[in-house]
């Protein structure tokens, strides 16, 4: 026990804690945080822009608009529950559809 509950404890730089550290209220860090092992964040909230080199998720739900600047690769299936718009060509080994509606000319590069 150091000091009393109303006393401010200042810890000098390069201090090392050999065991667990419990902070019951908030923690404000003025500089970068380096983690040498696993990091567990049960309820993570990130505000403002953040950058991650690589993120692996088991499940992802996005409530707002999303923009992907690079290539999107889907390993299993893709389900779209609404309209899809493509501003360039679509390439697929096979397309199966229940209905097809065209607003322009239909052109074939090969014989039917």
Task: Please explain how this structure is put together.
It is a single chain. This protein has 112 residues and is largely without helices or strands. The chain is 0% helix and 0% strand. The protein has no helix or strand. The termini are far apart. The model has no long low-confidence stretch (mean pLDDT 87).
Short note summarizing the structure:
Helices cover 0% and strands 0% of the residues.
Structure classification = little secondary structure
Strand fraction? under 5%
Number of helices: 0
**Share of helical residues:** under 10%
Number of strand elements: 0
Which helices and strands occur, and which strands form pairs?
Layout: no helix or strand
């Amino acid at each position: 026990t150091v000091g009393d509950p109303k006393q401010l404890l200042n810890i000098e730089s390069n201090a090392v804690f050999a065991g667990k550290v419990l902070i019951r209220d908030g923690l404000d860090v003025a500089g970068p945080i380096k983690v040498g092992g696993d990091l567990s964040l049960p309820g993570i909230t990130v505000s403002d822009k953040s950058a991650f080199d690589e993120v692996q998720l088991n499940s992802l739900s996005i409530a707002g608009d999303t923009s992907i600047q690079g290539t999107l690769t889907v390993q299993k299936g893709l389900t779209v529950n609404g309209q899809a718009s493509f501003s360039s060509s679509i390439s697929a080994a096979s397309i199966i559809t229940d209905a097809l509606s065209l607003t322009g000319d239909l052109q074939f590069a090969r014989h039917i």
